[in-house]
C-alpha cells in the first residue's frame, strides 16, 4: 500500500523562517505579514511611508519578531541595504515577497513620462533587483521562496494605466525567469495575482455604483475579495507544501480573469 505518512499539516508551518515582505506596513502587504506571523515566521519589512505601528502590533501579538528599514526600493543601494540588514538582524532570508508597488492613472494621450518611469522602476525593476540580490543568500543557505505579486492586469489590460499593466505582465515573466534560473538550487519562485479586493485604497471607487457593479458582475464568486482570501495562498507558496510548484501564478480573483 502507498505510504503518505510523511505528509502532515506541519508542511504549511513557517516556524523558524525569516521573511522579507516589501511594503507590508499597509494594504495587502499587511495581510501577508499577519498571515506569516500566524504561521510562525519572523519578519523584515522594507517600507517607504513611515506608518509601521499597526503591522508591528499585529506581528508581535502573534509572538513573532519584526524589524523595519525605511527607504526607496527604486534605489539600488537601498535594495542592497535591505538584504544586508536582514542578514545582520536575523542571519538568514528564507522568503521574499515582492509586494511593494504603485500605480498612476492619466489619459493615454497625455500620460506623463514620469508616471511611466515611477511605476516601471518600482513595480518591475525593483522586483528583479531585490530578487536577484536575495537569491544569492538563498543559494548559500540551500533554498528559499520568492513570491511576486502580480494582478488581474497581469493577464488583462485597462485604460489609463499603461506602466502598471506592462509591469504586472512583466512580473509574471520574471517569475518564470527566476524559476528557471534558481530551481536547481531549491529556490521556488511563484506569484499571486490578486483580483479586486475591498480595501481602504479603493473605498471611494466602490461607492460608484456603475464601477462597482461592472466589476462585481464579472466575478463568478459574486463579491469582491477580502484580505483573508489572500492569506492561505501566501502561506502555501511560502511553505514546504509548495516545494514542487515553481514558475506559476495563482490568481486569487474569484474567477474574474476567467470571464469575458
Automatic annotation (TrEMBL):
The keyword Transmembrane does not apply. Signal peptide: none annotated. Keywords: Oxidoreductase. One of its GO terms (molecular function) is oxidoreductase activity, acting on the CH-OH group of donors, NAD or NADP as acceptor. It comes from the Bacteria. GO terms for biological process: bile acid metabolic process. The keyword Ribonucleoprotein does not apply. Belongs to the short-chain dehydrogenases/reductases (SDR) family. PANTHER family: 2-DEHYDRO-3-DEOXY-D-GLUCONATE 5-DEHYDROGENASE, SHORT-CHAIN DEHYDROGENASES/REDUCTASES FAMILY MEMBER. This is 2-deoxy-D-gluconate 3-dehydrogenase. It comes from Lactonifactor longoviformis DSM 17459.
Amino acid at each position: 500500500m502507498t505510504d503518505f505518512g510523511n505528509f502532515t499539516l506541519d508542511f504549511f508551518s513557517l516556524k523558524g523562517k525569516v521573511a522579507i515582505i516589501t511594503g507590508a506596513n499597509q494594504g495587502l502587504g499587511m495581510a501577508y505579514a499577519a498571515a506569516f506571523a500566524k504561521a510562525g515566521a519572523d519578519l523584515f519589512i522594507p517600507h517607504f511611508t513611515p506608518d509601521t505601528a499597526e503591522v508591528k502590533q499585529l506581528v508581535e501579538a502573534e509572538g513573532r519578531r519584526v524589524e523595519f528599514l525605511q527607504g526607496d526600493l527604486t534605489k539600488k543601494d537601498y535594495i542592497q541595504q535591505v538584504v544586508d540588514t536582514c542578514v545582520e538582524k536575523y542571519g538568514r532570508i528564507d522568503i521574499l515577497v515582492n509586494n511593494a508597488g504603485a500605480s498612476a492613472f492619466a489619459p493615454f494621450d497625455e500620460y506623463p513620462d514620469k508616471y511611466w518611469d515611477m511605476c516601471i522602476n518600482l513595480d518591475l525593476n525593483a522586483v528583479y533587483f531585490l530578487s536577484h540580490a536575495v537569491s544569492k543568500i538563498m543559494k548559500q543557505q540551500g533554498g528559499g521562496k520568492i513570491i511576486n505579486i502580480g494582478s488581474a492586469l497581469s493577464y488583462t489590460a485597462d485604460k489609463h494605466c499603461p506602466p502598471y499593466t506592462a509591469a504586472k505582465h512583466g512580473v509574471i515573466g520574471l517569475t518564470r525567469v527566476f524559476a528557471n534560473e534558481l530551481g536547481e538550487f531549491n529556490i521556488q519562485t511563484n506569484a499571486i495575482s490578486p483580483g479586486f479586493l475591498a480595501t481602504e485604497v479603493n473605498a471611494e471607487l466602490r461607492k460608484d455604483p456603475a464601477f462597482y457593479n461592472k466589476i462585481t458582475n464579472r466575478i463568478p464568486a459574486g463579491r469582491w475579495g477580502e484580505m483573508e482570501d489572500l492569506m492561505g495562498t501566501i502561506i502555501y507558496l511560502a511553505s514546504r507544501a509548495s516545494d514542487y510548484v515553481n514558475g506559476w501564478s495563482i490568481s486569487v480573483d474569484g474567477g474574474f480573469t476567467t470571464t469575458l
